[in-house]
Design brief:
Order of helices and strands: EEEEHE
Number of strands: 5
Strand content: 25-35%
Distance between the termini: 21 Å
Shape: globular
Helix content: 10-25%
Number of domains: 1
Oligomer: single chain
Structural class: mainly beta
Radius of gyration: 14 Å
């Protein structure tokens, strides 16, 4: 963690581009899976959580059970070599 007089910056990664996104929208308790971004201009990002998943299928399972429902965007991070 990086600290300064004005606060602290935590862990983070660069996300891959929006073309890699898969979005899960929970409507009436039913998941709708879409390729690509789903956010509209009136929506805002309410938070960011980085999780480790073996593959997209595991990430989709996690997104479908995400507390609070709503819209969950899944995107891989840029792998640093």
């Amino acid at each position: 963690m990086v600290r300064s007089a004005s606060g602290a910056a935590g862990h983070g990664n660069q996300l891959q581009g929006p073309e890699t996104a898969t979005t899960v929208v929970l409507r009436g308790g039913q998941p709708i899976v879409k390729d690509g971004l789903f956010m509209e201009g009136k929506e805002i990002v309410g938070g960011y959580t980085e999780v480790e998943a073996a593959d997209l299928d595991e990430a989709l399972e996690m997104a479908m059970a995400w507390p609070g429902g709503g819209t969950v965007e899944i995107r891989p991070v840029v792998v640093q070599r």
